[in-house]
Structure formats: structure tokens, C-alpha cells
Design a protein that fits this description.
18 helices; Growth Hormone, Chain: A; about 425 residues; mainly alpha; about 0% strand; globular
């Protein structure tokens, strides 16, 4: 139940990031926005998440993993609800930015937290399954948009914000990370949590000392010094290129599809089917990573995603558009499942959430840049295939960077 509760936290993260994308046509009509303004508005939550990833990295070691997620969910829900009252573009932009600051807490903690609750043999496959919450969140966002469309974008965002009530479930079902508890000296609580997570099968004797690196605050300096410097630079750069390549397409996919002749409703159906194709991508990646390791499977999947993206960019018939995009969804999201697992395994406990914060910050920078740049290309009439080819080049860069990262399959967390 703990794993399911955290799985749905990730569903909520996906849902709330995508809801502004799917409501953006309504918002644009209501507030008379051009394509560039819409791109900036979509990027607002990611500006907030970029800022928030830095802020929450200092807070989470004080509060713990569990309280960070609960606090983040509650704050996000409150601010997002207030955003529906925004009278104009500027107030809506600020409210979405602030909601991003609040949401960043659950974003930087969910994957490291999830991995710290699992034994080594299940960590890889189960964490890839956690990443499958992304397409589920997309489907939730699409469902809310379609079913509440007649009520307007304010109702869609408002109802979606109520998902933050999941904080109640996390409060009662999810234990604190035994790694964090041991690191801050709460040995008894750590032993009790291990006993609970094992279903009573593992009993740590009272006299035994659970050891992890001491949790300290402000460990950013360690990320950019010594042996961690090249690792940090590589993973941050890969986070930027991979996120740019994926998000640059997803934020403008409805618009790009309409350029190919699909109606708004057809575009939503297309995206829903694409989201369903992501789920077997995660499952296959989870199965393969246990046999071949993180690095090989990630590289294979990104290469396949890049080839699918090339076919999508240069498709001459709608059947090729459909087939190539579904392949792109399958492989790119399978790769994301592996990558989200891999990032948190690079660093020891004392800097794990800080390292993940750096990764999230790089992703959010890409999320900010991509909608704005693609919006500018769309506004200037750049063609469908040129726009998607530019997006796809970032996927190619991600493949090159992955070769320089260490394999972590089967290794204990430090």
C-alpha cells in the first residue's frame, strides 16, 4: 500500500503538470493570448518548480521524506485552487508559478523516497513501474478536460487541484524512509520501519546500529567537487536534453497535430492512445533493466525513440504519423522510467535528494525553455517537420551523454 500511495503521488504530479497544457486553448480564448503567451504560461509552473527544487532540497532533510510530500501536496492544492480566481493573464501566470514552487517538494522526493522503501532486488523494476504514473496522470488530465470542458478551464483546474487531498492517504499509509531515520539518528524508528516494510520478516536487534552516511544540510558543494563533479555535470546535462526533447513535443502536440489536419477532439483521442502506449513501454523497460542493466536499456530505448521521432517529423501520411508517435511514446517513456530510477541511485543518502533536486532543476529549465521556443517557432510559421526535427535532436544528444554514466543495477544504495 505504501508503494501504491507514492505511485499516485506521481500520478498527481503528471496530472497537474499536464492540465495547463490541455486547458491552454480555452485559456487562450478566454484571455485573448497569442501562441508565445500560451507557451510562457505553460512554462510558468516549471519556472516555479525550478525555483522550488532548490528550496525544497534544503527543507526535505529537516522535515523528512514523508512530511515533505505531505506539505508539498497541501500547499500545491491551496495555491492551485486560488489560481482559478485569476482575473487576467499576469495573475494566472504568478499563481501557476507559485503552485510550481509548492509542487516541487513532492517532485524531488517521490523517486528517492520510493527507492529507499524497497529491497535491492525489487528496486529497479518497481521504480520503473512508479514512473508509469506519468501516462496515468496524462489520462486523468485529459479526462478532467473532456468531462468538464463545458464548465470552462477554471472548473477543470479547480477540480484537478482537489487531488492534493491524497496527502491524507500518504499520512496514514506511508512510513518514513528508514535511510533518512537512521541518518538523523532515529535508530529505533528506523528498525520499526524495516520491520513494517518486511511484513514482520526482518527484525533488526535493538543493539544493532543501522549505518548510512550522516544526513547533512547544504550539500550542494559536494555535488560539484571531487569524483561527483563529472557525474553531476553529465546527469544535469542529460536531464536538460532529454526533458527538452520530450517536453518540447508534448506541450505543443495538440497544436502540431492540428497542423496535420486533426481536430481538437481528434488530437485529444490521439494523445490518450499515445498515453496508453506508454504503459507497455514502462513494463518492457522494467523487465529488461533487470537483465541488461540501466545503461544499455536506456540507450536502446532513447535511440528507438529518436528514430521514431524522426519518422514522426517526416511522416507523409496520417498512418505513419500515428504509428511513429505511438512508437515514440512507447520508447521515450520506457526510457524515462529507467532514467527516473537511475538518477536517485547515483548518490549516497546524504546527498541523494540534493542530487535529485539538481536533476529536477535541469528538467525544469528545459521545461521552461521548450514551450517558449516551440511557441515562437509555431508563431513564426515554421513547418511541422522542421519543428519536430529540432525537438528530436535533443534526444540524440541524450544518447551520447548516457555512455558516460556509471551502471548501478544490482548495487546497494549508500
Amino acid at each position: 500500500m505504501s508503494c501504491f500511495a507514492l505511485f499516485f503521488v506521481f500520478v498527481i504530479e503528471s496530472w497537474e503538470m499536464m492540465i495547463i497544457v490541455y486547458t491552454s486553448p480555452q485559456i487562450a480564448r478566454d484571455l485573448s493570448l497569442d501562441a508565445l503567451s500560451v507557451g510562457n504560461l505553460i512554462g510558468a509552473i516549471f519556472v516555479g518548480m525550478g525555483i522550488g527544487s532548490l528550496i525544497w532540497s534544503f527543507i526535505c532533510d529537516r522535515l523528512g521524506r514523508k512530511m515533505t510530500i505531505i506539505s508539498s501536496l497541501v500547499l500545491y492544492g491551496l495555491i492551485s485552487l486560488l489560481s482559478v480566481l485569476s482575473p487576467d493573464y499576469y495573475s494566472l501566470y504568478v499563481s501557476r508559478l507559485l503552485s510550481g514552487v509548492a509542487a516541487a517538494g513532492m517532485l524531488i522526493v517521490t523517486f528517492p523516497y520510493f527507492e529507499e522503501l524497497l529491497p535491492v532486488r525489487w528496486r529497479g523494476p518497481f521504480t520503473v513501474y512508479l514512473a508509469a504514473g506519468w501516462p496515468v496522470g496524462i489520462l486523468c488530465a485529459l479526462g478532467a478536460t473532456v468531462f468538464l470542458e463545458q464548465l470552462g478551464w477554471r472548473w477543470i483546474i479547480g477540480v484537478s487541484s482537489l487531488a492534493s487531498l491524497w496527502a491524507i492517504v500518504v499520512t496514514f499509509l506511508v512510513p518514513e524512509s528508514p535511510y533518512w531515520l537512521a541518518a538523523v539518528g532515529r535508530q529505533s524508528a528506523a528498525r520499526e520501519t524495516i520491520h513494517r516494510l518486511s511484513g514482520g520478516q526482518v527484525v533488526v536487534p535493538p543493539g544493532s546500529l543501522l549505518h548510512v552516511d550522516t544526513a547533512e544540510r547544504g550539500m550542494w558543494r559536494e555535488l560539484v567537487s571531487g569524483r561527483m563533479l563529472p557525474l553531476t555535470i553529465t546527469q544535469i546535462t542529460l536531464n536538460f536534453t532529454f526533458s527538452w526533447g520530450y517536453w518540447g513535443l508534448q506541450t505543443w502536440l495538440p497544436t502540431l497535430l492540428q497542423q496535420r489536419g486533426l481536430s481538437v477532439s481528434q488530437s485529444y483521442s490521439f494523445i490518450a492512445i499515445s498515453a496508453l502506449c506508454m504503459i507497455p513501454g514502462y513494463i518492457s523497460a522494467s523487465f529488461l533493466t533487470g537483465s541488461y542493466g540501466r545503461k544499455k536499456v536506456l540507450i536502446w530505448y532513447i535511440v528507438a525513440a529518436a528514430l521514431s521521432g524522426y519518422a514522426f517529423a517526416n511522416a507523409e501520411t496520417m498512418s505513419v504519423v500515428y504509428a511513429s508517435n505511438f512508437a515514440l511514446s512507447f520508447f521515450s517513456l520506457g526510457a524515462w522510467g529507467i532514467w527516473d530510477t537511475w538518477i536517485a541511485e547515483f548518490y549516497p543518502t546524504r546527498v541523494r535528494t540534493v542530487g535529485y533536486s539538481a536533476a529536477i532543476f535541469a528538467q525544469r529549465v528545459a521545461n521552461i525553455a521548450a514551450p517558449t521556443v516551440i511557441g515562437a517557432l509555431v508563431a513564426h510559421g515554421i513547418s511541422f517537420n522542421v519543428t519536430t526535427t529540432i525537438i528530436n535532436l535533443f534526444m540524440v544528444a541524450s544518447v551520447v551523454l548516457a555512455f558516460f554514466l556509471p551502471e548501478t543495477e544490482g548495487k546497494d544504495l549508500e
